[in-house]
């Protein structure tokens, strides 16, 4: 059954309110998990001994605060304490003996509850984490579910057909019956994880199109936990940069990108092969799941290049360009840069906290090769695909103007 008119408006208002209530929970859960993975990778979390007793998978509060400041996640120790207190208040971390309800800048052991199995799963958190698992499974398996499709005269990217999505969920063993799977889809929509492409319908088994609204892969800055969000904008799937296409009429390729500082940027997302395939555009997002009924106002993309150059100009001996080589290991979120353009493509944006920035990558550099393959004659889609389907560690040669 398709709901229309006042009934759909009522459902929309309820879902908006629900999404607003879950916004903070969603962001805290994702941000906390990203931090946990980074700390494991950096060996900050490890087994530690105190008074002849071993405490598995824990970190020292004082050392973690040092780490947060060193990695520019906090400007000072007070801010770092506030960030970790937020995670402690939300039951993401806790003192290993539960003797301290405050996060203290001392040599005390704390642990992520996910590492000791004590994370409290209420009904809301269960739906959210179920949605995240489905999202990851969908992005990590080969399938043709996410495609550009048309509905009601509009063209929408990275869409799911409801009936095909239900087929896939049943095949993956997520639910036992078709009716139960449809109810799962409705819960995902009510929690702001998926949406109807035009925000007109609830989730129903049939030909209607839906999209994932949450980008679980966007690199969250920990400082975001301390700031209340204003009006949010629906997210795409690229990380750490996300964009939403404006409409499908003619050659209009308008995009919007909003950073945590409200800067306008436009870029094309590149992330590890475990993430979703590129939809051709991306940006930097700080938003969370919402169910706004009207689309955002969008802007035209602008290249960061002052002028376009040819492959021949880049390779001219004695020219004003120098070659640089970067070895970039993707982290739990991605590589942290975006490419755009064609023949040659260029670096459009770099996440200042990502692996690419740490390796020395900068905007306006031209991409020469990826893992030994010359890409001077390729466009950004081909380059993105090479990275997405390659290893976690990539070797890139670029040309930089001197």
TrEMBL record:
UniProt GO cellular component terms: plasma membrane
Domain DEP: 39-114, 155-214
MF annotations from Gene Ontology: GTPase activator activity; guanyl-nucleotide exchange factor activity
Organism for this UniProt entry: Seriola lalandi dorsalis
Record's protein name: DEP domain containing MTOR-interacting protein
TM regions (residue ranges): none
PROSITE patterns: DEP, PDZ
GO biological process: G protein-coupled receptor signaling pathway; intracellular signal transduction; negative regulation of TOR signaling
Domain PDZ, chain residue ranges per copy: 325-402
